[in-house]
Amino acid sequence: MLIKLVDDIDLNEAYHYLRHPGAGAVNLFIGTVRDQGQGKAVTRLSFEAYEEMALREMQKIGAGALEKWPLKKLLIVHTKGEKQVGEPVVVVGVSAPHRDVSFEACRHLIDTLKQRVPIWKKEFYTDQSSWINAHP
Amino acid sequence: MLIKLVDDIDLNEAYHYLRHPGAGAVNLFIGTVRDQGQGKAVTRLSFEAYEEMALREMQKIGAGALEKWPLKKLLIVHTKGEKQVGEPVVVVGVSAPHRDVSFEACRHLIDTLKQRVPIWKKEFYTDQSSWINAHP
Amino acid sequence: MNIKLFGITREIIGEEQLTITDKNIRTVAELKTWLFSAYPSIRQLSSLAVAVNHTYAEDADPVGPDHEIALIPPVSGG
Amino acid sequence: MNIKLFGITREIIGEEQLTITDKNIRTVAELKTWLFSAYPSIRQLSSLAVAVNHTYAEDADPVGPDHEIALIPPVSGG
Questions:
Q1: pLDDT digits (tens, 9 = 90+) for A41-84
Q2: Under DSSP, is residue A122 helix (H, G, I), strand (E, B) or coil?
Q3: Where would a tag sit more exposed on chain A, N or C end, judged by fewer CB atoms within 10 A?
Q4: pLDDT, average across residues C20-46
């Protein structure tokens, strides 16, 4: 299980970590900075993390997935700091014997990360900024 | 839309192709050579393709997905020739504004590829070999 | 009429291409019937499709010397 | 008792850490009530969780000077 917070995502490292002779399927999800948010043009993003707790929550999510599905490898890597439009901000992935499980488990990782991991995204627009999800 | 048959998969090229400022989500599925098949130890694989038709079917699958989902980019890349255990044999992927669509469309690409694209896999075991799916 | 062969059908027939001169074979269905009789082990495959000009063809579709024809045994890419 | 602040709660309170000396605050629920009163704009958030020792805590869980306490406004990673 590879769990970390990094400045920049290295997709080759992620894929090489996931490779396993018993796996026929690898699924990777990469979240990237979109040029629009809240109906406005996004110029850049900034991520703030409660690092010790974020890592602990990511580990719990990974351990839960390894218990639920017959995965060979699993990774959850999130970036911190400033990100520009188009840059990757998170990668989650698994390798598994078959593809059904790989899609299901990978989807679970990103959904659960978005619900539980204490990381906060601030979007910057041309004239203002906003902490995402903060208000109803 | 990036559709091709190659000797070796380049995952970085795949990811860079999929990046798009309007996409917040990238999903990649990579099929790899598993060390077991038909209950036996696999030593290597070989893929044979009816190349002109395989490319045409891959293009139809891609065009169908672009019509069905609001995708930014899409790729289907399959290898040909000999592959060793652990090596990637196929990568399909999409970028989309949001993750729901990215998972759904990526899953559709690999499922449809496996049903329709005229490529044949031969598994080699220690003592024999078998064309996969050929017999009931 | 030339027929391209791949995978297990190439191995069963023992050639990369099969040439059929029988003028009574004018449809996909007639071609399949002829093949099943000439090469009985083709019947044992899970399925057999025929491609005409790089497209999956129906039983009633015509086949002839002007077409690119190929046998498509069960595929297993991915 | 020290409370770590992140994201919008850090901006609302204007500090990276808040120190509370009121000895009547002994549970997560009491801490939240105190915060809502001291910083009314915290009430307007979609949700507010409290982490005790790096774990999401329940309203009845104790808080005190021996704990690492943090406010967790709505998360938005990924």
A1: 999 999 999 999 999 999 999 999 999 999 999 999 999 999 99
A2: strand
A3: C
A4: 96
pTM of the model: 0.95
In angstroms, the Cα distances linking B69 to A39, B103, C56 are 21, 11, 25
Q: Determine the CATH number of domain A2-129.
A: 3.90.1170.40
Cβ-defined contact of B49 to C46 (cutoff 8 Å): no
D24: its two tokens: 């009547």
Structure tokens at B132: 């996969």
Token digits of residue B102: 């990215």
Burial annotation C2-32 (CB, 10 A radius, 16+ → b, else e): ebbbbbbbbebbeeeebebeeeebebbbebb
- What is the mean pLDDT of the segment spanning B127-134? 95
What angle (nearest 5°) sits at the alpha carbon of residue A91, between those of residues A4 and D56?
55
Nearest Cα of chain A lies from the Cα of D20 at a distance, in angstroms, of 20
State phi, psi for A43 to the nearest 5 degrees: -95, -35
Q: How far is Cα C6 from Cα B133, in angstroms, rounded to an integer? A: 14
Q: How far out from the chain centre does Cα D29 lie?
A: 10
Report the chain D residue with the minimal C-alpha distance to residue A111: D78
Residue B68's φ and ψ, nearest 5 degrees, are -85, -35
Q: What pLDDT is stored for residue A5 in this prediction? A: 98
* Encoded tokens for B128: 């024999």
Q: Directed axis angle between helix B51-68 and helix B99-116, to 10°?
A: 150
Mean pLDDT rounded to a whole number for chain D: 97
What pLDDT is recorded for position B38?
84
Neighbours of chain A (3+ CB pairs under 8 A): B, D
Beta strands in D1-74 (DSSP E): 2-4, 17-19, 49-52, 55-56, 69-72
Beta bridge partners, A92, equal A29, A76
Q: Do A118 and D74 touch (CB under 8 A)?
A: no
Q: Which pLDDT value is given to residue B37? A: 87
Please say whether the beta carbons of B31 and B110 come within 8 A: yes
**Helical axes A99-116 vs A51-68, angle rounded to 10°:** 150
CB-based contact C70:C50 (threshold 8 Å): yes
Give pLDDT, residue A38.
85
